[in-house]
């Protein structure tokens, strides 16, 4: 591989070698022509001198008279240094008195032909040329030799003259041209190419316009591509750090800034509050009013929160309806609480979005650096735990993270893990509690209540594990097992001669699962139980959430022939509208009301519920009846049925059969 510069130099060198070889060849040829001309000239001079000798010399002894002739010829000819005439080895006359004997090395002019190749260099080395002349000294033949001594300097100058011309007129311009071409090439090609290479690597500065069109188009497309890449990189950077909907920092940027704040707070020994915010019932807005309204609501919420916080606080949107706020500058917890309460207040102001009046609230969990966590992950996790606590406590409130809360979470996680093996390991069992007629005392039904025989923790109450099963979704397989087992047990009760219905508790999570109705039908069919002997207990939450879909499901169950009980009535957001709109057969008054039956207000409540239910042709069961007094009170207010320890605690199926047989006789 060659660099462009070396490549150029190589080409220039080869061109120079070729050119100079041609020059040399031309020069050699020119030198030959000149040499031949010079030799020819010497020959002519020799012939002329010989002729003069022959015509003017009649006696050899008169030869000194020719001294002036040879002197004149020598003076005239610039290429001749001297002309001598010798007889044998004896010089007779010479135009140069220093030549007094025939030189040892000579070249003969007569054998030098003007057409043959002449080695002028070796002739110049000897620089004496001889030419024989034969004449008569009074009829005696005499052989003389004309010796021409060359003027070495003049001849050399004559010969090398054209070489200089070649060098000046051909060599120099060619060399100059090559150098110029090299420089032009460097300026217009090599250097721009190097600039483009550098630009491709570092993109440090945009290269200037280029002279050559091809290079300019490469440069222009490179500049265009790089600036597009740069813009895309910038957009990517922004989108990787910014939430596109609200324009708030996203989780990435929050992490970055949180880590930075942790470092700074560590150095300055300062603390700060990390708030985890989750909008309450946002899902319902999305589901009922559509995602457009949901999006607009999120944008509004973002700007409301942004207005409340100060510029040195940090706010980010970290999920669908989840936000994080970091408050670092507050004098004390009272001031902090004040700021958080302002957020709660401002958010709960009614809004009008696309003509829909919407009121939202927010649940806030707070964790402090460094008390509740010294790294971003722990802080976020603990604030999240506190936020969930706020949700559980009824939403629209602030909860601070505590170690107890953390322990609860840790326990929940361990329960969730154990629940996963509980079904396969047959650790669940159903207990049955009688439903009794208040007047006749006859047991008319049974409520199936789940029990978990945990291998190490012993009997875990459903109040502890059902909410965890609901959160993790494990309630679906567990609920399926409950339905199937309770329905099969109803058939076994019939086989034992007991005519009673079995109530099954359904969780709202299980109820909302897409396969619920299919699972229910399959369990019912495969058990062989009569639908009329199966009762389902749902809580008010089932009626509240997804009301339309749930109304359809309950209607289907009712169409099968099963009955429906509304459990724990009075504890949730009880509403008369539910009772009117949903197909409910029985209303179960929660135990908490039975505890207060003796109070005036408790009485009013129980009696109002019973009267209202009867007006709507709904039967009533009172839960948690423990005393005879309670029972006689219920009889006096016409409550049809009751459930409670007074009759029996929930017991395993085989014990339940005994209880019923003993009771019903
Ligand atoms: P629930 O459906 O309202 O069940 C009645 C609860 O009251 C039962 O508690 C029962 O043992 C208790 N109880 C009945 N009579 C008395 C009494 O006279 N005094 C007192 N102090 N308590 C009485 P349990 O079995 O601990 O269940 C608690 C809750 O767990 C249930 O409330 C129900 O919401 C849930 N649960 C129980 N089993 C299941 C089940 O199979 N599926 C689902 N989804 N939830 C269940
Ligand atoms: Mg129940
Ligand atoms: Mg109940």
Describe this structure in words.
The protein is an alpha/beta fold and 665 residues long. It has four domains: 4-170, Beta-Lactamase, CATH 3.30.450; 207-241, no CATH class; 251-401, Reverse transcriptase/Diguanylate cyclase domain (Alpha-Beta Plaits, 2-Layer Sandwich), CATH 3.30.70.270; 413-664, TIM Barrel (Alpha-Beta Barrel), CATH 3.20.20.450. The protein is 54% helix and 19% strand. It has 22 helices and 22 strands. An eight-stranded mixed beta barrel has the order 13-14-16-17-18-19-20-21, surrounded by four helices. Strands 2-1-5-4-3 form a five-stranded mixed sheet. A hairpin with a 2-residue loop joins strand 4 (128-137) and strand 5 (140-150). Helix 1 (4-56) packs antiparallel against helix 4 (152-202) and helix 13 packs parallel to helix 15. The two termini are 108 Å apart. The protein binds ligand C2E and magnesium ion (2 copies). The site of ligand C2E has 24 residues, from strand 14, helix 12 and strand 18.
